[in-house]
Hints:
Elements (H helix, E strand, L loop, with lengths): L6 E8 L10 H15 L9 E4 L20 H7 L6 E4 L5 H15 L5 E7 L28 H17 L3 H15 L14 H6 L2 E3 L2 E2 L9 E9 H4 L7 E8 L13 H19 L8 E3 L6 H9 L8 H6 L18 H5 L5 H11 L13 E6 L6 E6 L4
Parallel strand pairs: 2-3, 2-4, 9-10
Antiparallel strand pairs: 1-7, 1-8, 4-7, 5-6, 8-11, 10-11
Amino acid sequence: MEASNQVAIVGYAQSPVRRHADQTLGGLTVETARRAIEDAGLTLSQMDGFVTASLFPTAGAHAAEDGVSLVSANWLAEHLQINPNYAAGFQGFGQIPGAVSMAVNAVMSGAADYVLVHRALHNPQGSYHANPIQEARGSQQWTVPQGYFGPVAMIALAYNEYLQRYGATRDAMAAVVSEARKNGARVPWSYWFEKPLSAEEYLAAPMINDPICRFDCDLPVDGVAAFVFTSAERARDLQHRPVYVAGYATGAPVTRRLPLHWPLDDIMDVGAETGRRLWDRSGVRPSEVDLPQVYDGFSPFVYFWIESLGFCPVGEAHRLVLDGGIDSDRPGALPVLSGGGALGNGRMHGVPQMLECYLQLSGRAGERQRQDASIGVACHSSPHFGGAVVYSAHQF
């Protein structure tokens, strides 16, 4: 990829992750953006690019209102009193990898010198996926009356396929979720700070949509993260060690399905193609990655990403987990949830994965710093409706 290692993250800010923040999402985003710009050693007047993916991720009847339930790039620039050269929002598959790709392209093309990428997540009052509809129209008429509605039913279908096809058990998933919570409990801004979860607590939790229980789902929250991107050349003069974007890839199925019908084969076939794109574009191979951060908005995504990216054979992720293969405290293991992920932080989408890559590769993870962290991968969403970014501590 021509842009490989030519654009870098040079600063960041992460708000506290709360069930409900004590200020508006817009106000929290402005505050977080200011801190990220200051962290990069820049001024507001130097920021000339803004990018986000402002999807409001609820299947309920809540209104999508700029500055309230989501924050667009244009809204943020306006409320920072900046007239930018470039402002854009990504609306495709793989929200955060897509936003990163737009920031990289803006810098590489000269459309902007310093681009702020933010992600703002809102948890509305009331039931997050409340469904007030009285009738189901269109394609939903074939699923909603039977109770097949919303993302929990969607992932339960694919997870059931995985359990039955590969002989996996919920004991393995208990290890996944307790690993995420263990690491999230170490992150000061996390909703789950100092609140680890045992495997026994996981297994005792009530089912929501068998075999998905409450702890298999990330918690809706209010939270904002912001990152500053610029060219590798400009990054050399700034105060923090740059973290370079080595490559990125997204994917989407071409097979037509009913909404929320995600067969396991669709996920894994397209996921494998996403993985091939990622390694080809970045020039990196799975064996070279020492900081894989896989997406876990629903716990089965951990299996799907580990296998799609080639960190283990298809159908073997649950055995890898049972053998301690993702224990971030174990030498030689794959630390795929070392930043806590969504299950260990709250529903920040792919922010925990991206942030963990930045903090570790820039040497800014404090007491959690991993030695010799050099190449990281941050994933978002499902392997077949999402994407991933490869980050590097060094240009190569």
